[in-house]
Design goal:
The protein is mainly α and 61 residues long. The chain contains four helices and no strands. The protein has one domain. Helices cover 77% and strands 0% of the residues.
């Protein structure tokens, strides 16, 4: 059929990795924590950035 499933999968994984911390990504998708951490690194997601975003969310409530 010519469908490029791997490209779509990687795009979706990249998007999730940019938004979620590695531990959540690992639990959600049943990935090894090392794999989830590698995807976070590729997506530019850092723990510090996630913590800062989380603190802003609770401060607005």
């Amino acid at each position: 059929m010519g469908i490029q499933a791997r490209l779509s999968r990687n795009t979706a994984l990249f998007d999730l990795a940019a938004q979620l911390p590695a531990t959540v990504l690992s639990d959600l998708l049943n990935l090894h924590i090392g794999t989830a951490t590698a995807w976070n690194d590729i997506a530019g997601n850092t723990r510090a950035g996630y913590a800062a975003e989380l603190s802003r969310r609770t401060a607005d409530i």
